[in-house]
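User: quick one, fold this
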Amino acid sequence: EVQLVESGGGLVQPGGSLRLSCAASGFSFDDYAMAWVRQAPGKGLEWVSEINWNGATTYYADSVKGRFTISRGNAKNTVYLQMNSLKPEDTAVYYCNAAGGYWGQGTQVTVSS
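Assistant:
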């Protein structure tokens, strides 16, 4: 059974940091590029960041470039999203996605004072 389990979300003040993790199982993790996608309240899905299979290449949405860092540990079948200098507009449910269609259940990130 394919599983993607996100963790690390929560409530943080503007300017703060969070680190999201996504633990994968049930498929060949290091065969897949991995992405983070978010959905803010009342809005559609927004692609945030992506990393290729070996971590050598990363991509970011302009809205998070310079503040977020994606990484992966293939030995642990885990992908991470380090989020710094968080803003209220980063408030969303963050989903982990394996290129090809696998999705996690999401983790809530709320940035508020």
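User: anything notable?
Assistant: The mean pLDDT is 97.
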